Amino acid sequence: MNLNHAIETLVVGYGYWGPNIVRNVSERPEFSLAGLCERDGGRIEDFRRKHPGVRVWRDFDGALTDDRVEAVAIATPPHTHHDLVGRALRAGKHVLVEKPLARSAGEAAELVALADDVGKVLMPGHTFLYSPSVNKVKSLVDEGELGEIYFVTSSRMNLGLYQQDGVVLDLAPHDLSILLHWLDKPLVEATASGRSVFRDGVHETAFLTLGFEDGAQANVQLSWLAPRKMRQMIVVGSRKMVQYEDTAADDSVRVYDRGLDFSEPPANFGEYRLTYRTGDMIAPQVEAAEPLGLELRDFASAILEGTTPVSNSRLGLEVVLGLQALEQSLRERGRPIPVRQVDEVLSGGRRERQLAA
Ligand SMILES: NC(=O)c1ccc[n+]([C@@H]2O[C@H](COP(=O)([O-])OP(=O)(O)OC[C@H]3O[C@@H](n4cnc5c(N)ncnc54)[C@H](O)[C@@H]3O)[C@@H](O)[C@H]2O)c1
């Protein structure tokens, strides 16, 4: 990568997640912090204390007119993404936008097409795709170490920060992006049920069932109402099983040589013989690296070298299509919803634009 050129980057939003992006943009050699765009006075003060002399804008369009700004990293709430990303791309900037890419599949597809039209990088920030532990599991799946993947279970719970969009929009992008990355198969069906305790329609807890092409299934429990933080995923394959934990106390990948086999084809009906495998457990070494730093490195490489990021805009759209189906299923009290496919949505959008032109 050409490190003689640091990409001048504007960060938008300095709430919970924005400071992490600001820190990485300031510290990484591929980037230079051009400034911050934020509306909240208190947060601007906080930023100024930590980054004296760095430019601050309250008005996004004003910031975009600065020709030095080459890239924009957006860490504002999901309902603002479509508008802010669209304006940044039209102003000729490369964009990294926090998950989810947009609130609806139509909006997400429009942004993917716009980025193609203007020839700029559009990258959704699915940070877990850069987690060394997630990628350790990915390599076990890709190398066939686990055999055929039967199913995945996931528990993503804590006493979480209450947000108006509900727990599915907050946490499901993580599971959807990780599962699409591991299984490398389209999501075809999504089912969700949940509970809103405090406000109608804002679910604090949700239970998801996700069906992938070729039969793999995932069951995901999401909650902001839990006594302790739990971030656990278990992948059950025909050869081995993996348990991946992602909390401060336990950040590990454990591979179990365990399973259940039919010993041989039965001679007669009713003669199935099962054998249990209870072999060793190994915990492979996982590199220690901050996922957000690796995500920014991938963004820089897409801008400077034209590579396709691991967290790319098609995957961002696929996640939004999954979220949309889950939200519909939640509204319809757990009816299984077929998930629309990326190519179909992108070509439908293209046809509509041609008709409108
Ligand atoms: N990748 C991850 O692991 C991760 C973790 C947390 C949050 N996120 C994502 O980050 C995004 C932000 O979440 P958060 O929890 O930091 O939200 P937040 O509400 O804490 O902060 C958002 C900030 O954006 C500012 N803002 C809103 N609209 C703006 C505008 N038009 N112009 C300038 N500033 C504006 C607000 O004043 C606020 O300071 C969300 O998309 C969320 O899903 C990602």
Explain this structure.
Helix content is 35%, strand content 27%. With 357 residues, the protein is of the alpha/beta class. The strands form two sheets. It has a nine-stranded mixed beta sheet. Strands 3-2-1-4-5-6 form a six-stranded parallel beta sheet, with helices on both faces. Helix 5 (105-118) crosses helix 10 (342-356) and helix 7 packs across helix 9 (313-331). The longest helix has 19 residues, at 313-331. The two termini are 39 Å apart.
Return the structural class. Answer: alpha/beta
Summed over residues and divided by their number, the pLDDT gives a mean of 94
Cross-sheet strand order for the largest sheet: 14-13-12-11-7-10-9-8-15
- Which percent band covers the strand fraction? 25-35%
Could you describe the largest sheet, including whether it forms a barrel? 9 strands, mixed
Low-confidence sequence ranges: none
Pick out its properties.
357 residues, six-stranded parallel beta sheet, binds nicotinamide-adenine-dinucleotide, single chain, alpha/beta
In short:
The chain is of the alpha/beta class. The chain has helices at residues 18-27, 41-50, 60-64, 81-90, 105-118, 132-142, 167-183, 291-305, 313-331, 342-356; strands spanning 7-12, 31-37, 56-57, 71-74, 94-98, 122-125, 149-157, 187-195, 205-212, 217-223, 230-237, 241-245, 253-262, 274-282, 337-338. A hairpin with a 3-residue loop joins strand 11 (230-237) and strand 12.
